[in-house]
Amino acid sequence: MSADGGPGRGVVVTGGGQGIGAATVQALVQEGYRVVSLDLAEPTAAVPGATYVVGDVTSTDDLRGAVQAATEDGARLAAMVANAGMNRPGPLADLSRQDWDAVMAVDLTAVMESARVAHAHRDGPLSIVAVSSYSGSMALANRTAYGAAKGAVNSLVRHLAVEWASDGVRVNAVAPGFIDTELSRRARALGLQSEQVVRARVPLDRYGTPAEIADAICFLVGDRSTYVTGAVLAVDGGASILGLPLER
After folding, report:
1. Which of 70, 74, 110, 117 would you call most buried, defined as having the most Cβ atoms within 10 angstroms of its Cβ?
2. pTM for this one?
3. Catalytic sites, residue numbers
4. Which residues form the Ketoreductase domain (predicted)?
5. 9-179+209-234, what's its fold?
């Protein structure tokens, strides 16, 4: 049974095996949803009660399979969380076309296709939540492909929110800032990211946590946001509104 006492509300989370995706899976399970994660790899730590499907988010068939798993036994699809992402950092002049296409395939086209598959399987109110990024509206050096894809995701969300409103579908995005994930810790260890520089850009003076992003996603998935659509919710400690770095 779901949190609302019905036959079950299913949610698919792409890229649910680690980081923000894993935190989102955990939070949604705690909210009483039937949660299916679609990821290329097995989870780093499985959440009891969640279902993990190994598959490719760029495959329409794999997306459909995840939705089918989330809607077994009479459950209806309540939400699609398009979280899976990738990056190929580096100067654009040196970026191969293959790398550019790979970033676009995962970070933009797969978000579109996740939304289309969810829309095709709707059976009542549906929430689609895309995980965008601070870099979708703010420029970061050597992140051109990633930033371009995330900026396009923000536009996609607004267009679909208008196009599908009459279908009972809400479409929103969460735009995380600097989040303390496995990837960001690895970047700091390799000298690719400076904690001092990041904290100077964040008024709240710290990295965010995956759980804080998951809480925002849960809000947009659930019944407390039924009049919210077409929004890109910044969850970045104030980084996107800061004009000059803070002196600390």
Report:
1. 70
2. 0.93
3. 146
4. 9-182
5. Rossmann fold (3.40.50)
